[in-house]
Amino acid sequence: MTLVIGLTGGIASGKSTVANMLIEKGITVIDADIIAKQAVEKGMPAYRQIIDEFGEDILLPNGDIDRKKLGALVFTNEQKRLALNAIVHPAVRQEMLNRRDEAIANREAFVVLDIPLLFESKLESLVDKIIVVSVTKELQLERLMKRNQLTEEEAVSRIRAQMPLEEKTARADQVIDNSGTLAETKQQLDEIITSWAEYKNTVR
């Protein structure tokens, strides 16, 4: 039995750090963001749909989609954001399911779906267990400003665009507090994976 784990968190909470730790353990991690980028590349069905919806102004000189331009467009316009999601999300979901099912067919012990907006997109049914990576509000703001070179106002607005971290942690099966050292984060992850491996063995 393969245990399907959903990995999520808030923006700049350190979810990618935990994902990398899982990969180091040899666990398959299916990253929604990477699949979303691949889904809008030239030649993919979503690429043509996005141009039809948003026009050729969003293209770079080489024909690729200008992600920054498209991001700025949808970030300030709810209708355009929903239109983009309606194109990209089904394609991403299908590819994630294909890769998840492949891991299950290969009888892998665990497979992780790394989905930043797991709760917001109501994708809980795709997984058996959910890990939320959390940090303090102060640290989240500080890391986001530093990582993305944002003003405090810009960073706060991006954090507020997501479901509050407290709400995500309340809905998680396990929470990793990533406010401390990398070693502390890794120890928490190790304990979760060990306990779930034991759980899997008892319910076979």
From TrEMBL:
TM segment ranges: none
EC numbers on record: 2.7.1.24
Cellular component, GO, one term: cytoplasm
Subcellular location: Cytoplasm
Pathways per UniProt: Cofactor biosynthesis; coenzyme A biosynthesis; CoA from (R)-pantothenate: step 5/5
Domain of life: Bacteria
GO molecular function terms listed in the Swiss-Prot or TrEMBL record: ATP binding; dephospho-CoA kinase activity
Keywords assigned by UniProt, alphabetized: ATP-binding, Coenzyme A biosynthesis, Cytoplasm, Kinase, Nucleotide-binding, Transferase
GO biological process, one term: coenzyme A biosynthetic process
Main location: cytoplasm
Binding site for ATP: A12, S13, G14, K15, S16, T17
Enzyme class, broadest EC rank: transferase
Catalysed reaction equations from the record: 3'-dephospho-CoA + ATP = ADP + CoA + H(+)
Family named by the database record: Belongs to the CoaE family.
Role this protein plays: Catalyzes the phosphorylation of the 3'-hydroxyl group of dephosphocoenzyme A to form coenzyme A.
PANTHER family: BIFUNCTIONAL COENZYME A SYNTHASE-RELATED (PTHR10695:SF46), DEPHOSPHO-COA KINASE-RELATED (PTHR10695)
HAMAP family: Dephospho_CoA_kinase
Record protein name field: Dephospho-CoA kinase
Gene: coaE
